[in-house]
Amino acid sequence: MIVALSAWGVIDAEVAILFRTLSGLRHRSVHFNPKTYDSVREDALNAITTLRDILQKQFSAFGPQPWFMPGTPGVCFIAKDYEENPFVRRFITPSAVYVGPLHNTRITENGSWQFVDWPPDVYGAGEISDEQYRQVFNDRTPESLVPLDGPHVPATILGPDDVLRL
Fold it and tell me: Which residue of 11, 57, 134, 148 has the smallest Cβ count within 10 Å?
């Protein structure tokens, strides 16, 4: 399974090593040997920290994962090349908000974040590359952001049905 996930680009080499470490710990636990009594606590702690590291590296909202567009300080955007990736569609997209580079955010009265964006016609027809998106995002000024008092539209929050349609 580790080889397949690596070959499909779902996990990188570092996460594959962590899975192999976890596999070795599992193997020692399942195929019991009286010698495991000597290291049961250490093995359990190693398994927990290894699993934590896997989750942190594979499912983090920030990091060097290839499905995130690099070069956008403080925020993560899904790279266009990974929008159709099955792993991204299943695990990353459901918590994503679809926004343009000039979107804005505010905290509502109940303390939750609200993402607002320009109406689609402001951005024009067609698509832009990750490089163009990054440039517009990084070069934006307060005046270019969608004003919080309008006109704006709520950003699209992708739900399970959207993920299935992707």
Answer: 148
